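Task 17 of the worksheet. Students: predict the tertiary structure of the chain below and write it out as structure tokens. Keep your answer in the requested format; marks are given for formatting as well as content.
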Amino acid sequence: MKRLLAGLAVAALIGYLLTGLAQIRPDERAVVKRFGRIIAYPGPGLWVGLPWGIDRIERVPVRTVRQVKVGYIPEAETPPNSPIVGQYLTGDSNLVNVELTVNYDVRDEDTELERFVTEQTRVESLIVRATETVLAQWIAAHSVDDVLLTGNARLPGAILPRVQRLLQPYRTGVRIAQVSVSYLAPPDDVRPDFDRVNQAQARIRTQQEQARTEAARRLASAEMVKRNQEAETAAYRFRKLQLAKTDAELFLERLASYQAIRKTNPNILQILWWEEIGQTLLGMQRRGRISPLDQFIGPDGLDLSTFESPPRLK
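Model answer:
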């Protein structure tokens, strides 16, 4: 009997000593308190400390994202005759029902772990109050149309940094990771009216988008026409410049030739003159503007009585 009791005592002592062992998982950090004073912040692995009653180990999942709901609670889930939770007043004195989902996690630094372990019983209530405060302020600064039409997109970005700033003085050791809108709607008794307004506004936005698309299409078409005309103008200008350059070069060549011939033949100008007159008369004759007079010249000179009436020009 004594041996049995001694064995049981030894087993109990060994079991008691084993309470000082703790396995910390890969996604966890721990805060170890000895007689209420923090002595260590061990990471993943096996922790060997003093047994229960002397050491107390708080394991904290630092890679786990926690979630808390803030705002609207459906009327079916609220007690009878109780006020509606999560109903906020807009800047133009309308009511909207809003529910946010706030995701947060625990910071991995030693001091932040200590703060979380100390304040963990009231962390979520602080997050809820801070979020409700910021949410009410944001909604009160906007009209009901702004809230309902843009709230889903704008609220998360406006809420998250302000909630984080409000929580800093409380030293909770947590970080707000994400804020999302899980419910946003007008009160049930006026929802049909808001739905009709939203549908009308959706049609307006559709027409505006169609108008912008058509304007962009026409602008692109006008730009294309402009570029084509500019290209044609540039090509026409280039051709004219080349022709003008060629004419100028030919003229300069003829001028140089004339100046060289003039030194030996002073009458060259008259010869050139009659050549040009001849070319002009041939051109006019081809176009039916003049006729040769040789056939009307007789022994006594030009016989004007034989001229026929000139044809009328069409």
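Marker's comment: Residues 8-61 form one domain. The radius of gyration is 50 Å.
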